[in-house]
Amino acid sequence: MEQTIVLLGAGGASFTIALLKDLILTETLSGSTLRLVDIDEGRLKEAKEIAESYNREAGTSIKVEAYLDRRDALDGAGFVICAVKIGGYEPLEAERKIAQSHGYYRGIGDRVSCYFGGVGAYLQIKFLEDVANDMMELCPDAWLVQTANPVFDGTNYLTRYTDVKTVGVCHGHFLAYNVAKIMGLDKDKMSAEIIGFNHYNMLTDFRYEGKDAYPLLDKWIAEESEAYWKSPAYLESTNNYGAVPEELSPGAIDFYRIYGLLPIGDAVRSATPWWHHTDFATKEKWYGPNGGFDSEVCWAGYINDKTVYRDAIKDVLSTGKPITELSPLEKSGELHIPFINSVVTDTYERFILNIPNNGCIPGIPDDVMVEIPAVSSARGVQGIKMDPLPRRIMDNVIYPRMRTMNNLHEAYRNGDRSVLVLELMHDNRTRSYEQAKNLIDELLAQPWNKEADAHYR
Amino acid sequence: MEQTIVLLGAGGASFTIALLKDLILTETLSGSTLRLVDIDEGRLKEAKEIAESYNREAGTSIKVEAYLDRRDALDGAGFVICAVKIGGYEPLEAERKIAQSHGYYRGIGDRVSCYFGGVGAYLQIKFLEDVANDMMELCPDAWLVQTANPVFDGTNYLTRYTDVKTVGVCHGHFLAYNVAKIMGLDKDKMSAEIIGFNHYNMLTDFRYEGKDAYPLLDKWIAEESEAYWKSPAYLESTNNYGAVPEELSPGAIDFYRIYGLLPIGDAVRSATPWWHHTDFATKEKWYGPNGGFDSEVCWAGYINDKTVYRDAIKDVLSTGKPITELSPLEKSGELHIPFINSVVTDTYERFILNIPNNGCIPGIPDDVMVEIPAVSSARGVQGIKMDPLPRRIMDNVIYPRMRTMNNLHEAYRNGDRSVLVLELMHDNRTRSYEQAKNLIDELLAQPWNKEADAHYR
User: Fold this and answer.
1) Is the pTM of this model over 0.80?
2) Which residues of A touch B418 (CB under 8 A)?
3) With an 8 Å Cβ cutoff, are B425 and A399 in contact?
4) What is the pLDDT of residues A417-448, one digit of tens each?
5) Residue A90 has what pLDDT?
6) CA-closest candidate to residue B313, choices B326, B302, B304
7) A86, A193, A454, B241: which could form a disulfide with A123 (CB 3.0–4.6 Å)?
């Protein structure tokens, strides 16, 4: 069934390759068209060449088109996948440095702050709003599959204030399988229910061979955790950018001790308490050597990792080496194409997706996006009703994150700078109103925030 | 219609007098019995003598009985009014001093912390639980009218975890009339809707001669506030204990500026932001000379005021002067007896009461106590459905206060000291986990907290 799928932000090479491979390997979508969109002409050209290499090598039927203007690409599209990070990472790093000089180690907000795309997430929210307006004009029935951060704040904006059919997709919850792996369990015998907000999700149901596996975790903590944290498997097993496996780090286990559920994936660094993240040494204590993904060391490695991958791609393109050698043609594990396929073929499939709560998690307002098990089909997406989260997670983790999102929206909708300051007043590092206000003012005074500076009066 | 009304904590002379006067002046309750209960024999005797003086002077039909054992008094009661502050104020002051030595000016938590009755509100919650158990045994159909602080945390505990019919009563919202008075308006032409939690309530509807009066407030702020804050009416008009009128203080107006609604009564000091309350000089800036009710100066005056009143009563009792000279026989303005009267006579009356939300304020869980307009009768209490509170009040004021209450309950129900520490980690003055933990440990190690120390493992 031929579809027209638009990828916004196609210049991010690794995600474009992942998506293309999934599309190639999904037979029911054969003959579909993938429209690559990026404002960076050089990167767009690269992305198209890579796609054509796959087509050539694999002999597939996927048509690939490249667009500098997103409106041309959106016209008549069936699905729009948004992977756009406006402004790239340089302003983000510059904003972090400014925040540090005001007393905010590693920048404003929680550990996901790095994904907000700048103060107040202005650029990301504004972009999504523009895309939604374009879609309502050019492809009003299309689905917007939002995958760029902040997924929680962004998809919430779309569902609250626009009429675009929106779903949020993130792969972080798959890291639950690493929990089984570290515990020495067979991951194929494990099942998991992971719920909450995006990057704030917890393992609410954990089974091994059909039985509750939390007692196994308790046993592992009592008998094996200390040895594991001293073992080479933990201390020396870093990924490319230098982060150790965080899933069962002391920080994740401390979260479990406080709240009674294990945080999963990005939640291990985003939803864990502020006193785990006060400085590099403290981060190392809780999240292992190099201090976890968001530390200055690992984040620099992550940025560098992107350059290394891009160089490898450039090498492939210039030498004519097979692209399938760099990135073999196998499924990526991302949910975007499987989700699209279930909608297109009207096949009921269970994914973990970001959708408006509508009563699925008790105590969360209906119009707030939750990341929960959901069933997709041509009918759309239906969330599965969950048990309540533990009260202390609701009060100490969920509502504070909801507040951040709501405050960003309040500030944006009203062009009200004081609400950006208000949000920062909740930050434990804030000592005075002036300190917070000065930081917001200085951030908005940067050249890349000119539009935001005018917006937030 | 003769009723049996129990007053727990009758040794607090001024409240006992207020209640008795209301009872005497409510004809439909003539012939009722007021059972005074206190564990302090001397104070109980005093209270009984005062009551008898009123009876003698006014020739009323109210029977007064005194009980040292509350179980004797509860037997067969129709209404139980609870005004008990366990342990008195001395341990509270001692705990504040300890907290200050750990970096927490004026004690733990928000400004209502002074009313928690000690770390974790243990003594108050435990007492209410015991009273509820006694009532279920001795007077299962009686209403518990809870008026001792913390009203919010206490009534929530009662309605969630016991079967006693509970309502919370506080007179703070009547201070809305002072707003009209300060603005130079005729208070009889004003009407007000004040909603939220106890001590966290806002003026959601403010009318003068039937029309929205917020524009009048905006005009007053623009044209008169600065002059008012420099006038003797503000700077010199203190109450007995040295607090200036807080209703339209710079702090109250700043709350209005941030959130869009005026805080009322105790909310002016309890719900206003932490950066208004960092030290005495800052409190003076926002709440006038002497820094508002909770400052070290005014609080000391408040405690002293109680002694002065008690001395005056002792003087009346020893000299045989008429009690009606010290406290003339007129209605007190408290809601307890009018509420009881409406239930007894099945007269529908509108009060502002603390009851489980049950959908009245959107976004607040059904089982959380809200202070809202409600209609009472023999049928019980029915809340009136309200419009949503502004989102920024929900996120930045309401949910954080709900968190404090839930965390106190979580700690109490599970005997879990770490949840007391967790709550304190949200305090902006907390710099490290150790700082908070050390404070909780030191507070629980005090002699008056021996039982709590054993409870919170």
Assistant:
1) yes
2) 257-258
3) no
4) 999 999 999 999 999 999 999 999 999 999 99
5) 85
6) B326
7) A86
